[in-house]
Design a protein that fits this description.
The complex is a heterodimer of chains A (395) and B (257).
Chain A: E1 2-6, H1 15-21, H2 35-55, E2 58-61, H3 75-85, E3 91-97, H4 104-117, E4 122-127, H5 134-137, H6 144-160, E5 166-169, E6 174-178, E7 192-195, H7 199-208, E8 211-215, H8 218-234, E9 244-252, H9 256-266, H10 268-272, H11 289-298, E10 306-307, E11 313-314, H12 321-326, E12 330-333, H13 335-349, E13 354-358, H14 366-387
Parallel strand pairs in A: 1-2, 1-13, 2-3, 3-4, 4-7, 7-8, 8-9, 9-12, 9-13
Antiparallel strand pairs in A: 5-6, 10-11
Helix pairs in contact in A: 2-3, 2-14, 3-4, 4-6, 7-8, 13-14
Chain B: E1 2-7, E2 10-17, E3 22-26, H1 38-43, E4 47-51, H2 68-81, E5 88-92, H3 94-105, E6 112-116, H4 139-146, H5 162-179, E7 200-205, H6 213-222, E8 226-231, H7 238-241, H8 243-254
Parallel strand pairs in B: 3-4, 3-5, 5-6, 6-7, 7-8
Antiparallel strand pairs in B: 1-2, 2-4
Classes of the chains: A alpha/beta (395), B alpha/beta (257).
Chain lengths: 395, 257
Amino acid sequence: MRSWYFSEMAYHPAWEAGLARGSLRVVLPNETLDPHQAHRLLNRYLDEFALCDELGLDIMVNEHHATATCMTVSVPMALAIIARETKRARLLSLGNPIANRPDPVRVAEEMAWLDVLSGGRTELGLVKGAAYEIAPANSNPARIMRRYWEAHDLILKALSTHDGPFSWEGEYFHYRQVNIWPRPIQQPHPPIWMTGMSAATGRAAAERGHVVGTLLSGGIAKPMFDAYRARARELGWEAGADRMAYAAVIGVGATRAEGHRRADQIAGYVRTAPVVAEPFTNPPGYNTIQANVAMLRQGRKKGRIVADRNGNLIDATRASVEDLMATDTVFAGTPDDVFAQIKDFDARMGGVGHLLCFGQGGFLDHRDTVENLTLFAREVAPRLRALHPDRAAAA
Amino acid sequence: MTRSLTLSGIALALEERGDGPPLLFLHPGAGLAPERPWLDLLARRFRVIAPWLPGWGDSALPDRVGSVEDLAYLCLDLADALHLDGAALAGACFGGWIAAEMAVRQPGRFARLALIAPLGVKFGAVTQRDIADMHAMGHDDYLAAAWADPARGEQDTTVLPEADLTAIARGREAFALFGWKPYMHNPRLRHWLHRIRPPTLLLWGAADGIVTPAYGAQWQAALPDARLEIIADAGHFPLWEQPEAAVAALARFLLPG
């Protein structure tokens, strides 16, 4: 199992204002952000990413928009800096929100540039983006997956075509001369990742051999991983652990109490992320008709993105660390505790090759973050690596 | 009577009631709501032909259909198929936008036109919302903007049958598909409104908070031959909130004589 560190680079000083406003996203005015404070935080967060290279951890970056939960507005921009500050770490974009990007060729261009800059260390996540990203991007939620797949196909073709230019006259995207410079080091293209929360996504990823990732709920991850493996088997191949990724909060301490305290602070992310003004949580078309019928029948349940081991959604905004450990959202304690929890999780999931570690979040300060990462990298990550050997080749 | 009709390969469901002069009616973004009293009241005066637009009700929404222009041509095909020559055309909310798109394309196709709180046109400055952002409102705020009395618009979805819930979810998705960006308007339509030659009634709820009566006055100024009539104690859906008054206003304007 590989371990990937990530932080959303939160602007937690505005969380209280966001909670009072009932939304940390979309409608929280940016007057609640002090740009000088943001300057200090962004530089600190980038130092923490750089530290991972020394510790032997890989690195993941994501992006969100118009939110106090995440100041990363552009994965390629953040990874460009991190690529220059690191030498060994794999650099995972998870990802580029291509259903919300008007220009897929630009995505291919930027990610190819990063692959060249980093010496072939990039991994490329092509993601749908969360429901509340629709409003800041003002992209149409209806038929979002048709647009996603067209962008996906165009990006892969742009990355892997070297005798261009080629033309693309599709439903959503139109180009007459596609010919990106530079072309990526990794051929035909960097490994591709997808994210999701459903069996349908598991099957779609399996059909393309992509890595599939999900977050925060074992109860949601298992059916998706199972669907991936079943679809791969139908198609005549065996999907290994290296196709499965899972994101969780990691809190490691010299003592169990210290590990729990760190996880509790990082889990501030889990408690704030779902606090979004109602109309932006489910734009029409973003979720399937069946999912919307179920929501209409039940009435809405706010703040529920985390499911327990039976798949039932819980209210994460009020959950304790112990609650969140029961849902596989948090792995916390001493290095032995954390390893044992992840090993158990891995067995229950049927093999997970990538652990995406929320190793910093919100109010966890720099000193605690460094200690958390160092302990995890020295005491836990090597044992996880032995659980599943590294994959042989890129996707 | 509900029936289905396939036009240009698209299976449309439509309500047809009454046996007066023909009136083609295009429904709001929120759907047709044939169970509300307005349709039977209207059918006492007209032969009402009211299709469920593609994506609403039982009407199909093929992948190749995705723009208001598609809907305008489809509804013109419907008028041809049913031989609605010299008929009246009415559209409410989103349906009013489609009716206007039809009328600029075939100005002589319909004898009279009624636009009930239509969307579809932008008159104001770039930072001014001519059409309220319905998709940025919570449930309660939306009802307060769209209804003079929000209680009249309240709907308990937890007790509705599966088919109704599916129709609601499909209709919401279709409304987004056709109207998300530019939001509920065609930036070019305003510059062709001079082509709408038939006498036009603009019917507006006094308490409409989605598109206000002031927006209606801008429509009136932009059309060659239009009058604006205000319905008291009604919001964005005067036919649903004040069916008698709204139907009477339509009949006064649209019926010959």
